[in-house]
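Onboarding guide, step 5: your first structure request.
Type a short instruction followed by the sequence, for example:

Predict the 3D structure of this protein.
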Amino acid sequence: MQTDKMDRIIEKKHGFWLKKYGLYAAMGALLLAMICWILFGNHASTVRVEKDQLTVSEVQKAEFKDYVRTSGRVIPIQVVQVSPEEGGIVVEKVVEEGSMVRKGDIIVRLSNSNLDLQILNAEAELAEKQNLLRNTQVAMQQDRLNNQTEQAQLDMDTQRKQRTFEQNRRLYQEKLISRESYLQSQEDWQLASKKRSLVTKRLKQDSLYRTVQMDQMEDNLGAMRRNVLLVRQRKDKLCVRSAIDGELGLLDVELGQSVQPGQKIGQINDLSDYKVQAEIDEHYIDRVRQGLNATFTRGERLRDGDGTSGIKQYQLQVRKVYPEVRQGKFRCDFVFRGNRPEQLRSGQTFYIDLELGLPEQAVLIPRGTFFQTTGGQWIFVLSADGQKAYRRNIRIGRQNPQYYEVLEGLEPGERVVTSGYEAFKDNEVLVIK
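The system replies with structure tokens like these:
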């Protein structure tokens, strides 16, 4: 009985290991699967879109024409502002807006009572100065005559005393007069000679002084005459005249209106030639310079045809670039090169192609609204079968009205989505149905 119990074979438990370690193995396998999915799986967010809602364009390598298109307005080659040099009240509008005027024609007449009073005062002051000068001249002439008379008397007195001295000298030598009489006559003659010399010097100095005084008065009088002349010329400037030949394009005054000196009251358009003025995006301000060429086309009726019209191209050139930027744009003036369009009028608008550089071979994609969302930093590229589109980073360089120049990220022959991306949000894969 005991032998049987000792020799009984105990059955081995085969499922024990599986029960104990199977749960850990399953968890490990699941973790490994998750790691592989994270590392090698495709986690890109996707969105389904209709094919008809997309604009698909092909990347191509072609000649890139570096130009910008803008609208330009025809204006006169020169506009001259009409401003009075003297202020006053408008008493007459001689010419109306839109009339042709020639240089020197009167446009507006003004009246200025204060200026009239200034002219009268200047003329009265001039007359007073002229009278003063005449009186001074008369007084100086009288003084000169008196001085000449005094000098003549001194000359005669000196001669007499010299003659008396010489006679007394002979008499003294002969002992006929006293020594005192002789010396007294000598002293009288010497005194008369000194007085004559001093008076001669004084008269000479007075003559020089009066000459300088007269010159100064003549100069002052000449200045006053010029002042009166200028004041009278100011009177003439109350007639506002045209500075050039042209068309009076604006006249903003009314009868009885008070106008200040330098105030703009109108403008004259020089219609001898025209220029085209355009506003260009500030993005191009560093590339636009004087001398660049531009073109525009215009449909015109053929002269030798039967009333049909044809397209004709005209040449322009940048004349002036205005550095000031307003509302994201700067101004630029163009002048015509060669022929001009027939019946050219101020205010006409043309679409201008401004050449910024020479054409070059480049990778191109057509312009599209995707650029507003991406800023040219990425784009959706279609797969080979066209079923999906994947987001890809790119770098865009120059642009013209038709194409973007692609510097990096795309190859010729690839297809890209160039329509708007607003509905795609942050999705990275498009599933095209």
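Each response can be followed by summary notes, for example: Residues 1-6, 37-43 have pLDDT under 50 and may be disordered.
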